[in-house]
Structure formats: structure tokens, C-alpha cells
Amino acid sequence: GALKACADCLWLREKEWEPRGNFFRYILLNIWTECNFKCIYCSNHTDTNVLNNTKKYNIIPVIKDMIEKKVITPDTKFDIAGGEAPLDKNFNGLIDVLIEAGIKNININTNASVFSKSLQNGIQKGVISVISSIDSGDKKKFEFIKKADLWDKVWHNLSEYASSLKGGSNEIRTKYIIIPSVNDTEKEIKNFIKKSKQAGVSGVILNIDLHWLRKNFDDKKTMKRVIDLTEYFIDASNTLNTDWQVWAHIEDLIRRYNIISPDEPVDLSFIFDKTKKETKLQKVLHALSAVFKKR
Fold first, then answer.
1. Nearest Cα to 66, choosing from 27, 21, 13?
2. Dihedral sign of CA atoms 33, 202, 120, 148 in order
3. Is 241 helix (H, G, I), strand (E, B) or coil?
4. End-to-end distance of the chain based on CA atoms, in angstroms?
């Protein structure tokens, strides 16, 4: 049986899994020791000691040892997040090691305030994708949410990364996290999409502040607003000819309000499928709206 701690995980699936070899298929590295932002939805906003006073160590020797022992292979997928990973003094060296080892799929979550030549090199080689949470459509709102006067620098760096793409499968995407009562307006979302398009990124992502979501599932009015904004985000992205994604917290909403059974291992990959997005996803969102209207 599954671990009790995993019982409510959205990604928990029970099936007969095929043997895949004795190597890591996925590694997540969270570099929690440094960040230069204090995003209002992040723990770093309220307790900087958790991140910035954590004991630091160099992970590169560990990664090299795993590569030598072939438990990390070119097929191992890496997600690297923070804090703000490029602030770590070993970040560029780590990226260089992964590229040299032939790793084909590296995803970097970054606030894009610090430009990294190693990261850019990986983008040019087609092995690194970037996701950056902007969460705003203008400088004033950005500074309020991020507590950092780096709007122009962030967009400059993202433009540089986007211009380094060589037509491979890797991407540069910007993300908008809905924070109820802070940035939950159509104008803010549309300006974000326009700015992203101007920067030349591959596409945009919509999500919701997970900490707020967990505390406010019973706030039906705001939940309805989130769903309406999701529909607006899709329509505005289509109008502006911008590729989009809606992230998995939408699935959490769908399950919680019984649009699908909480026990049903439903494949919601259509959320990421551009060819189907105006059929299945719209139907799910409309179904959610109907649920909220009845409550």
C-alpha cells in the first residue's frame, strides 16, 4: 500500500509499473539557501531564517558520483528550483556538469533576476527550459508582490534567454500565480500575457497561490472568480496568439468539487494539449462554474 503521507497526493496512481532500469528518472533539487525576492505568497516573505541561514553545501561531488555510478543517466530529468538557484555559487558549475554528462531535460525555476551564462548555454543546446513566475502585468504590482525593484532586469534577462532558443523542444515560459484580492483582475492578466509575448517567450502558465487555496476551499465566491479568470486567461492567450498552460491545482479544484471522482485516476494531460484546449478544458471549467453557482 501507499505511504500514509502520500494518500492525498494528486499524482498518486496504482497500476502495474513496467521495469525501467536501475537509475533515477527524476531528480528535484531545491536550493533553499538563497533568494533575493520576498514574494508575499512564499515562506521567505515571513521567515527569511528558514532559507538564508540554512547550512550550505556543494552538491556537485554528489552529482558527479551518481553520474559515474550510472544512477544518473542522460534520460534523468532534473527540476532545479529555489530559493533562487542561480544565486548559489555552485549553480553554474552544477549546470556545466549536467550538460557535460549529456542530460537532455533540465528545467530551471528562476525569478530571472540574475543572468546565468551556463543556463543560457543549456538553452542554446536545447536541454534547458526555464519557468519564471512574474505574477503581475506592471512594475508597480510586481514590486508589491516580489518586494524587489527588478521588473526591468527580469524582463531583459527573460528576453535574452528566449532569444537563445534554437527551435528545439525546450521552452522559456512565464507564470502568473493568482493571488486573490491582490492580482486577480483581467487587466493585470492581459498585460502579463502581452508583456510575455513582447519578450518572445514560448508561452504562459496560470496557477493559483497554493497556500491560499488550501486554506480557502470553502470560499465559493472567490473560487468562482478563480475559475472565471482561468477562462479569461485562456481566451486572452488565444486572442493574442500565445501558447498557454493551466497547472495542476485546477485538477485539485476539479476533484474537490466532484466534477470527477476523487478516487478516479483521471488523465488531465489535455490541459497541456493545445489541440484540445477549447473542448475538454472549457467543458470542465464551465462545469466548475455551474457547481459554484449552485452553492
1. 27
2. negative
3. coil
4. 36
Mean pLDDT for 283-295 is 51
In DSSP notation, 180-227 reads: TTTS--HHHHHHHHHHHHHHT-SEEEEEE-HHHHHH-TT-HHHHHHHH
Q: In what order do the strands lie in the sheet with 77-82?
A: 26-31, 77-82, 105-109, 128-133, 172-178, 203-208, 244-246
3-state secondary structure of 230: helix
Which one, of 171, 173, 74, 157, lies nearest residue 123 by Cα?
171
Distance CA 234, CA 278 (A): 9
pTM above 0.85, yes or no: no
- Report the distance separating Cα 210 and Cα 220, nearest Å: 16
Residue from 10, 267, 295, 133 nearest 284 by CA: 267
- Which of 177, 147, 174, 145 has its CA nearest to residue 162? 174
Query: What is the number of residues in the chain?
Result: 295
- Angle at CA of residue 229, ends 283 and 175, nearest 5°: 105
Q: Are the beta carbons of 118 and 92 closer than 8 angstroms?
A: yes
pLDDT in tens, 15-24: 787 777 788 9
Q: Name, in order, each residue with C-beta under 8 angstroms of 118's C-beta and a sequence gap of 6 or more.
A: 91, 92, 93, 95, 96, 99
User: Please, which residues have CB within 8 angstroms of residue 254's CB and are 6 or more apart in sequence?
Assistant: 260, 268, 284, 288
Report H helices in the chain.
43-46, 48-52, 60-68, 91-100, 117-124, 139-146, 151-163, 186-199, 210-215, 220-239, 249-256, 282-294
What pLDDT was estimated at residue 264? 46
* pLDDT per position as a tens digit, 240-288: 999 988 775 555 555 555 444 445 444 444 444 444 444 455 555 555 5
